[in-house]
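Per reviewer request, we include the raw input and output of the structure prediction for the construct analysed in the revised manuscript.
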Amino acid sequence: MLCIIDYGSGNIAAIANICERERIPHIITHDPARFDAATHFLLPGVGAFDPTVETLRVSGILPALETAVMEQRKPIMGICVGMHLLADSSDEGRHQGLGWIPGHVTRIDIQALKQPPHLPHMGWNDIAGDPGDPLLMGIDLERGFYFLHSYFFEAHNPEDVVATVTYGTELPCIVRRGHVIGAQFHPEKSHANGIRLIKNFVGVA
């Protein structure tokens, strides 16, 4: 059962549509009381770092999610800003992140970008990674994913980086530490590759 955490993020409906089409059992909720029914969590993200952290704290979602993920060891995948929340901190805000994957969210260096518009990084981009990795099985790396961001997850430990994207320079686009995963791109906008990534995450053939 995939729990899509609803804290007002704009891409929840698109993710739910994928789950419905692919018959992935799922719930959409902001109620921590329903977290016990979940086997996996998806933390979407559209917006800025600090307001998202504040919303999760005020809503009471954060402590319940920490129990489910860090104590009960249930897998979670954060998307875009949801990925950034997994870091320790961010250039985009003053709040602390969850710190579940050691790292800092850094603004993309515009000096490394050769062609305008420099930021945000928007549109389709191929990625580099091990096609044999369970998370990337069946994914067309050359087709890649749809990106929309100005910040990236700078992982402290290189072994936590599963895949990278080149935009001016090489940037991590999938990070993973154990059962905690972050994806910089938007699977819900990435057609077959995005569907495959979600199915790989929840273990659906």
